[in-house]
Write a structure and sequence with these properties.
Elements (H helix, E strand, L loop, with lengths): L13 E2 L10 H11 L3 E5 L5 E6 H6 L12 H5 L8 E2 L10 H11 L3 E6 L2 E7 H14 L11
Antiparallel strand pairs: 1-6, 2-3, 3-4, 5-6
Amino acid sequence: MYEFLHYQVRDAMTVDPIAISPRAKLREAEELFETRDFNGVPVVDEQRRLLGILTKFDLLKAFSLDSQTITPHYDEIMEQLVETVMTRDPVSVGPRLPLSRLLQKLVEMRTKSLPVVEDGRLIGIIAREDVLKALRRATLRHEIPVREEPQP
């Protein structure tokens, strides 16, 4: 377990994750959520600078109505641009952040994943599952049984 304290985000993250343009339609994002089983997707510009994140919750917000709104047709909503409902300026982490600190951040924020940014550009994504795998990996390395040598 001690080894886990030396791990950094870059040791466990998914490198070069799938991202979406702010000009993409909500329909495209929903398709990503469905086919890839994503809960969220980073929103980036042409240089992969992180602009926001679109989650399933954000997608649901596109359907929320107030007392003044007439219910729009599903297809109309799905034609809206990602930038209209994405979460802007999302929390992100750097690749050299210790995984122990990331773990605490994920727990405190109750979030499933965070984008990994270096020099303003998206380079990875780190999810709860990645942290759990790193914990397991650190533990397994120290549970290898020591073979006893036969006595003469």
